[in-house]
Amino acid sequence: MSDFKVIEIKKSVFENNDREADRLRAKLKEDKTFLLNLMSSPGSGKTTTLKGTIARLKDEYKIGVMEADIDSDVDAKTISETGAKAIQLHTGGMCHLDAGMTEQGLDSIDANEFDFVILENVGNLVCPAEFDTGASKNAMILSVPEGDDKPLKYPLMFTICDCVLINKIDTKSVFDFDDEAVVERIHKLNPKAEIFFISAKTGEGVDKWCDWLRKEIDEWNK
Amino acid sequence: MSDFKVIEIKKSVFENNDREADRLRAKLKEDKTFLLNLMSSPGSGKTTTLKGTIARLKDEYKIGVMEADIDSDVDAKTISETGAKAIQLHTGGMCHLDAGMTEQGLDSIDANEFDFVILENVGNLVCPAEFDTGASKNAMILSVPEGDDKPLKYPLMFTICDCVLINKIDTKSVFDFDDEAVVERIHKLNPKAEIFFISAKTGEGVDKWCDWLRKEIDEWNK
Prior knowledge:
- The structure is a homodimer.
- By secondary structure, chain A is of the alpha/beta class.
- In chain A, 36% of the residues lie in helices and 20% in strands.
- In chain A, strands 1-4-3-5-2-6-7-8 form an eight-stranded parallel beta sheet, sandwiched between helices.
- In chain A, helix 2 crosses helix 8.
- The relative contact order of chain A is 0.19.
């Protein structure tokens, strides 16, 4: 059964987003709540990846999901069917979330009751990269159909992410996608980025991504 | 041989973008220059679609292309190899072009010398939808891998476009994509939208899209 709230997010009043983000991160650390900010283009498979992630981790952690979208409720409905607590954040046309907007969502979901909260950011490789949400870690998804040149075209997004998931590897037969080239381009921007090749659809590679998440969550919440 | 200029676009100083857009559109009409604003997510195939479009129309029209990107020169390089005049517009991190920024590009390419100028907007389904560039017509590309639910999630983009290209139909075997559902969702937002199913890679459907363009260009420039 699906059951979720829809929250209309208001524009933030804070002038210094970086300071707000640091304050929020410290609060999350104190509350032992690991917040993952998950970003990507529209249609790269964020929601399907989350479904597979929740299925693997829900017996170990109390998980909450905030689905940010300009308008629809499609994703919160899908996620709430996994059994995880989900809320839908409507940005009212805004193309990203900053720390103040993220905190409005966290308050609405009572984030301190969760070990692990996921923010599915607005589908956009540009604007979300520019605003620190206060998350513990940033991750992004690049899907094979989008092409291996995306680190060249959206460098800031690849620079600020701790982890890059290359999704839809099951579709490689119909696309020209160079694994080595994409890894090289990402690591040139961000040498420490963790990179996992996955298919959210078939499940391939998702266990390794979840192993990384487990390590990060346990480190944050200890 | 590739040969193109790189223009660093400055933030616009105009307060009323809609008024500037109307003024620019009137000027383009007077100059008999048809300006197409082409939008999409990152990786939907804008540049490949443009290559096929230019190949079909370059003997009939004098074509110029403005490739807007945050940072790279990848697309202008590709387009300049088609023989069309191309310039690269760097937005310096900005996620969209407005009318003032578009005009800076048009001035740099000497737009009044062309019958048909294409603006390849920043890859983003959110912000470019909010700013009238002054174009004669707006078109967008949705690619099959992105999913048939995108009109539900990015309604403004589908509402403001005169034409929607559904690209990468050659990859349908590996994706669940419902043609009828996507057409119904687009026409619910925008009953007059022209919709063409294409594969920029194989060329399927591209002739019909070019027929539509020819009609629009000739109507504008007569």
